[in-house]
Amino acid sequence: xxxxxxxxxxxxxxxxxxxxxxxxxxxxxxxxxxxxxxxxxxxxxxxxxxxxxxxxxxxxxxxxxxxxxxxxxxxxxxxxxxxxxxxxxxxxxxxxxxxxxxxxxxxxxxxxxxxxxxxxxxxxxxxxxxxxxxxxxxxxxxxxxxxxxxxxxxxxxxxxxxxxxxxxxxxxxxxxxxxxxxxxxxxxxxxxxxxxxxxxxxxxxxxxxxxxxxxxxxxxxxxxxxxxxxxxxxxxxxxxxxxxxxxxxxxxxxxxxxxxxxxxxxxxxxxxxxxxxxxxxxxxxxxxxxxxxxxxxxxxxxxxxxxxxxxxxxxxxxxxxxxxxxxxxxxxxxxxxxxxxxxxxxxxxxxxxxxxxxxxxxxxxxxxxxxxxxxxxxxxxxxxxxxxxxxxxxxxxxxxxxxxxxxxxx
Amino acid sequence: xxxxxxxxxxxxxxxxxxxxxxxxxxxxxxxxxxxxxxxxxxxxxxxxxxxxxxxxxxxxxxxxxxxxxxxxxxxxxxxxxxxxxxxxxxxxxxxxxxxxxxxxxxxxxxxxxxxxxxxxxxxxxxxxxxxxxxxxxxxxxxxxxxxxxxxxxxxxxxxxxxxxxxxxxxxxxxxxxxxxxxxxxxxxxxxxxxxxxxxxxxxxxxxxxxxxxxxxxxxxxxxxxxxx
Lengths: 410, 228
Hints:
heterodimer, A: two-stranded antiparallel ribbon, about 55% helix, B: about 230 residues, alpha/beta, six-stranded mixed sheet, four-stranded antiparallel sheet, 7 helices
C-alpha cells in the first residue's frame, strides 16, 4: 500500500468532521503560539537585562586588583589598580577590544536640604565610548567634560524623587581612602534616563580625576571596564589579559546571580511548556480516539479488504501528522505575530516592578520579546512529537481491532 | 475443484456470561465458479459461516482449507494477505470508504496487492464500465445512490480477480429494482469471470438467482444444496 494513498485517506478523513478537526488544529496552533510568545518573551527579557547589565554595570570584562571586593567598594590602595592607564592601554591594543577605560567606584550619600539617598559614585573617563549609552540617555542638562571639577550626573528618577533639578547644588558624602568621612558640594550637570531603574535611581557619575581627588585615591582605579566588539570573544580576550597580579572577570562571572536566576527561570518555563504540551496532547488524543470510534466499521471493511494493522496504524499517525503540521504552521504564524508585536511595542512595567530585580538584574521599564529561532524550532518539533505520541494509543487501538468485531460495530 | 472447504467447523461466541453456539460441526465445500445462496432465518449462523469462509475469523474447532491450505493455522497478517489476493467482500451497507471516490474505492484492493499503475487503471476502468457506473468514477459515496454504491462495491470485490466473492445480504438495503439489477450483475460477472459467489440472504427473489442453495438453521446446515 503506497504511503501516498494512506496519506490521501488520512488527509481527507480530517475533512469529515471539519469543526472537530479545526478545533484540534487550533489547539495545536494556539498551544505552539503561546509557547513561542512565552519563550520569546522570557528570552527577550533575559537577553535585554543581560545586555543592559553589560552596557551599564559590568562591561564584557573587568580587570581588578586581586584583593578588590565589589561588595565593599573598597578605596584602599591595596585593593585598587595602581597604574590603571597602563593596564587599560594594554587592553586597548587588542583588536577585539572596542573600548577600555579605568573606573573608580565609591559608595556615597547624596544630600539635599530635605532629603538624602544612598548611591554608587562612578568616576569615569568621560571621553570613552563606553559611556555613549549615558550620553544618549541624557534627558536634561549636558554631559560631563574631563576637567569638570564640580559637576555630576544623576538619574532622572532619583532627581525627581528628591526634587532635584539641573544646576542645583547637592552635597555628596563619602568615606575616603583613609577611612575618614568626607563631603563635597557638587552641581547637577545633567540627568539621564537609561530606563533601568536600578541605575537611574542609584548612580552618580563624575569625571575620573575628580573622583580620584575627592576620594583621595591618587591616580588609582577600582577597575578597567572593557567592552568588546563581539561578546563571543570574551574568553579569548580574558585569557590574553590574565596575569598574576590582576583579577580578570568576565560578564558571565559578574552576572552570575542574574544567570542563575535565568537558569531557574528557564526550568520553571520548561514546566510551563510541558503543561501546555500536555493539554494539547490530551485534546489530540481525544479527537483521534473519537475519530477511531466513529470509524470502527470502516476499519473492519479495510481489514476485510486485506489492509493490515500496520497500515491502519500508519493511516491514523498520518492523520495526526497532517493535523500537527497544519497546526504548527498556523501556530508559527500566530506566534510570530505575537512575538513580533512584543518585540517592537513591548510590554510596559512600572519602575517598582523593574526595580525588584535590584542590582543583580538590570530590568528595563519596557520588556521586549525576542525571536529565538532555535527555541521555536525545538518547540515546533516537540509539538509534532507530542502530537504523534498522543495519537499512538488511538492508532494502536484502531490497528488491533479484529475484523469480525469491527464489522459488527454499529 | 473446490475453492474452499470447511471440515467439522464449530464456533461459539461468548457475550458476557452467555454462550452462543453460532456454528455447530459444519462441513461444506464451495466449488470454483459456483453461484451459491446461503439462506436461513436470522441467527442461523449465515454471517458467521461467511466470516469463516472469508478468513475474517477462525473457528474454535475444525479446519478451513483454502486451495489445499488450512488457513486456521495462518497468522492475522497471512489471513489479511489471503483475503486481499483471493477473496472479495460485498456488505449489506455497501461499505465503501467514504472519503474515496468510486474509482479510488475500486482501486484500493489493487493498491493493497501492489498491482502496477497501468494495469490498475485498466482494471478499475473496465470494472466500473462493467458494473455501469463509469460516469460516477469521480464521485464519492455520498454523491451516489444506494444502487450505484452497491455496484461500486461489487466492482471493488472483483478488482483483485478473487477466487471467491462473499456477499452478506447484498440487496437488503436496495429497492427491488436495484436489488434485481445487483443480482443480475453478480450473476453475469460470475459467468464471465468464473469467480465463485456465496451470498447470504433471506429474500426469495435473490435465492431464485442461485445455482445452489444452502439452508441453515441453529448453526447447522439443514440442506447443503449440493449440485446434482
